[in-house]
Amino acid sequence: MLDKDTKRRIDISRDILVGKLPDPKSQVEQITIALIYKFMDDMDKESEELGGKAKFFTGEYQKYAWSKIFDPRVSGFELVNIYGEAIQRMNHNPNIPQLFRDIFKNAYLPYRDPETLKSFLKAINDFQYDHSERLGDAFEYLLSVLGSQGEAGQFRTPRHIIDLMVEIIDPKKNESILDPACGTAGFLISSYKHILKHNSENFDPEKDSRAFELHGVKLEEITINSKKYRGDKLNSDDKERLANNVSGYDISPDMVRLSLVNMYLHGFSNPKIYEYDTLTSEARWNEYADVIMANPPFMSPKGGIRPHKRFSIESKRSEVLFVDYIAEHLTPQGRAAVIVPEGIIFQTQTAYKNLRKMLIEKNYLVGVISLPAGVFNPYSGVKTSILWMDRTLAKKTDNILFVKIERDGFDLGAQRRPIKENDLPDAFRSIQLYKKSFESGKKFDTDKWPNVFLIEKHKIAENDDYNLSGERYKQERIQETEYPIVTLKDILLSKPEYGSGAKKSPFDNKVRYVRITDIDDDGKLKDDDIVSPSIIEKQYFLEEGDLLFARSGSVGRTYLHQMTDGSYQYAGYLIRFKIDLKKAFPKYVFYVTKSKQYFDWIELIKKSGTISNINAKEYSSFSFPLPPLSIQQEIVAEIEGYQKIIDGARHVVENYKPHIDIDPSWPVVELGEVCEINPSKNEVSNLSGKTEVSFVPMEDINIDNEEIALSKRRPICEVFKGYTYFKNEDVLLAKITPCFENGKNGIAKGLLNGIGFGSTEFIILRAKPSKVFPKWIYLNISDDRFREILTPKMTGTAGQKRVPKQVVREYKIPLPPLDVQQRVIGIIEKEQELVNYNKQLIEIFEQKIKDRISKVLGKK
């Protein structure tokens, strides 16, 4: 398990490098090289202490020994030259094993600053090579900063997703295991630890948790197991076989280097990691594996891949070729789990269809596990799924299992913060029960699992596109509803009509031109950027009850025209649907298009590309329950009642701004007279370096109120230098664009030990208690007037402007007596309580609308 001291050392090393190497990949490479360098020296010292001789730093390489470069007589520039020369020459050192030479291949020092190098090597010097798993976990944590190699479509797989895939596939001690796009060897290490766990005396399958079952753990701090498993049931032959059975390929020498280190630090003395182009080389084509797991690159280079001719599927797309490769390289009893982009699931091009057909008809595919579209955040919001292959199980069933995961224990925003909701444990349990049903012969009951269902293979093959989107088949099934299912086409008065091709022109106060960009997410027309069409075409004028659907770009967006006055002409990227009033109310249909079921269908049906699009025929196929007109009317009336409450509450929330009614008799003073600006860190210089304090990056400041998220903590020794100091009740002001313009201000409260450090882009305002309350300062600097006056005084380049501290110091605020300040603050806080109450009302009644629509649409 990753211990705090080791994690802290890694964080310190990265903090030292970040000024010279902002790219996380470069940081990881430099830390990797330095660690191996240091560990070779540790092993030499250990050998000498045991009566042996140094074997790595001998002969002409003796001058590069770690202890030599730390000689105090070596100047800063000499250190840069010696260390830089050492890491470049190390791959030619005949005294070190080939593994280490491979790690140092193409290594170099990418900066020449002596102070940075000296601080960095000092941090590395705190690491000790002790043969423990602690170093392996530390290296996994280091690799967690490698989120994206985006140009190649590679995204590091989150640990809990790897763990889920490994648990599903369940690799055994005597099986060969391969990752043909291994990156940093995450799947291989996880498989190895899985085998150790299942072959340990202290393993309890009923009680021991898995990474994907953990709650409240930060994503980057998840380790494969929180408990030490030694694999003590494995004999020496088992261990030797296991070491030889685990292998990986990667086209990138940098990734190969990281994989080699990762494997080595996890006990593989001679890792089987090869620099190899899986898609274009044939050298290893005849090597097969019992277990293959991978998250291969999604993107293909311009012009596509140029593969050899041995693939079953003809394609130049890397994601197609990788899935083909994995399927074809399974042994007859082989199993695989591979992460794929949505193109593999439903793209209609020939290569994609042929691949899906092969997976089903040749009995590779057993299941498709849909992941939420934020698993790879903040590096990519790409939607992915896991293809589960099992050549034995696939022959025993005529079905494909579909599992939908909507929440994975973390929110799907950029920060990926832990949340309580986690579908992974249930998804895993349902898959385990499905596997057991083959052994027991009992029917697998999908009714127990709302997001799990089986679809017959012949059903998937019906349309000849072999679409693997579970939502498609879920949509086609009869929902649990008492009302008949109709398509949009069934209730139309006339054929759908595409809009006008006229260009926009300035608004003439007569005819408004309605474009996609004029419609907001709620289906209402925006009040800004109103234009007219360049040509008036009355056949495109909207009538009351017309429904518009976006055909391109913001597909799925809808607008219901309810006006009877004025002239509105709709544009060409919209499609008009006229509802037959004898069959349906347009408002009912409009509210159906606000349902989750509708947007799930949109995600399924839209054609991806540079711009997403859905045509009239496709929209016409959307199906939903249609109650009698009287029931539709009741539903609409109920929803409109809720909507009126939401609109009223939203009007309060959107228009409220705290306002101080200034009395002209109040004195006006400069902020510098009532505040201490950027207090000295010397106030806390006497504290122990191990004292933990709150760490507040800019992203944790809330724009809407003074609250500050306190999700991070650091020892004070890590943050004392290079960060801004503050304490409880200090006011934080963001001074840099665009945070200043956005009003990123806050009041520090609840800090760990009462102390905080944060971004150097904060100005700290400490109120003088005898003169002013912190909240009074906050209210004044959060006012629009503050930004209007100070924005023109910002200095710097267009992209990186800052408010000078002196300008803030000289800004004048009204200063009534403290009792008046307190009374005004009390009034504003009561107002803010009412605003928060209105926010809660919006959430409650939006959920009521969703629940009402879901009730009539029915659920599986």
Automatic annotation (TrEMBL):
Residues 504-644, 666-839 form the Type I restriction modification DNA specificity domain. Keywords: DNA-binding, Methyltransferase, Restriction system, S-adenosyl-L-methionine, Transferase. It holds the Pfam family N6_Mtase. SUPFAM superfamilies: DNA methylase specificity domain, S-adenosyl-L-methionine-dependent methyltransferases. One of its GO terms (biological process) is DNA restriction-modification system. Its EC number is 2.1.1.72. It catalyses: a 2'-deoxyadenosine in DNA + S-adenosyl-L-methionine = an N(6)-methyl-2'-deoxyadenosine in DNA + S-adenosyl-L-homocysteine + H(+). It is an enzyme of class 2 (transferase). Residues 133-477 form the DNA methylase adenine-specific domain. GO terms for molecular function: DNA binding; N-methyltransferase activity; site-specific DNA-methyltransferase (adenine-specific) activity. The keyword Methyltransferase applies. Belongs to the type-I restriction system S methylase family. This is site-specific DNA-methyltransferase (adenine-specific).
